[in-house]
TrEMBL record:
Keywords: Hydrolase, Signal. It comes from the Bacteria. Residues 1-19 form the signal peptide. The keyword Hydrolase applies. SUPFAM superfamilies: Duplicated hybrid motif. Residues 105-197 form the M23ase beta-sheet core domain. GO terms for molecular function: hydrolase activity. This is M23 family metallopeptidase. InterPro entries: Cell_wall_metabolism_enzyme (IPR050570), Dup_hybrid_motif (IPR011055), M23ase_b-sheet_dom (IPR016047). PANTHER family: MUREIN HYDROLASE ACTIVATOR ENVC (PTHR21666:SF270), PEPTIDASE-RELATED (PTHR21666).
């Protein structure tokens, strides 16, 4: 199955990394993936999920070489969801502004979160840690040509210039800045253009699923 994938992730998928393990739940199917980069034949999957599952799946896949199993486990672990549970409360795009009541463009994605750990989704670098009246406390991570911002945080835990790994805790979600309640606001850019962060979540989901499928092939 061919799928679009972030070019930068292809270079990270086989790294030997340590990551948090999360249980992910969805209130509804994530968005259909939109093409922000050219399709690639290479298939490589994230790193996030339950350790016991991986052990079980790799045991089943007895006919695979140790090298291939290591490859797919590494790919499975090469990315992380930003929260333990993913529930979208306000999607990217046009919406009714909760403060003005007028239609406006929501350039990010809001996820349900209340003082929860926030994780780096991919290997990258912290390029900004700051605060303002709109975003509250926020942190910006660079992942190759992509930048991801986490906003309305109660606390930032990573410093500017730090190298981060998938699943590494970088902040605690909160309700700072221009916010109507506790949540995690994520913005994502490819170069200077805003993209729907749900694309990244969908890619993580598909990558994990494919990695697990590969690990069960006898």
């Amino acid at each position: 199955m061919k799928k679009s994938w972030l070019l930068l992730t292809l270079s990270f998928c086989c790294l030997s990394l340590q990551a948090q393990f999360h249980t992910i739940a969805y209130s509804k199917p994530l968005y259909k993936m939109q093409g922000v980069v050219e399709p690639t034949e290479t298939k490589c999957l994230p790193r996030d999920g339950e350790a016991d599952k991986l052990v079980s799946f790799t045991s089943i896949a007895g006919k695979q070489s140790d090298e291939m199993r290591s490859h797919w486990i590494g790919c499975y672990m090469s990315v992380s969801y930003p929260l333990k549970k993913i529930i979208v409360t306000s999607p990217f795009g046009r919406r009714k502004d909760p403060f003005t009541g007028k239609r406006s463009n929501h350039k990010g994605l809001d996820l349900r979160a209340n003082s929860e750990e926030v994780y780096a989704m991919m290997p990258g670098e912290v390029i900004k840690v700051s605060s303002d009246k709109r975003s509250g406390n926020y942190i910006v991570l660079r992942h190759g040509d992509y930048t991801v911002s986490y906003c309305h945080l109660s606390k930032t835990l990573a410093k500017k210039g730090a190298q981060v790994l998938p699943g590494e805790v970088v902040a605690i979600s909160g309700n700072t800045g221009r916010s109507t309640g506790p949540h995690l606001h994520i913005t994502a850019k490819y170069g200077k253009k805003h993209i729907d962060p749900a694309i990244l979540l969908q890619l993580i989901k598909e990558t994990r699923e494919e990695a697990l499928a590969r690990l069960t092939i006898g």
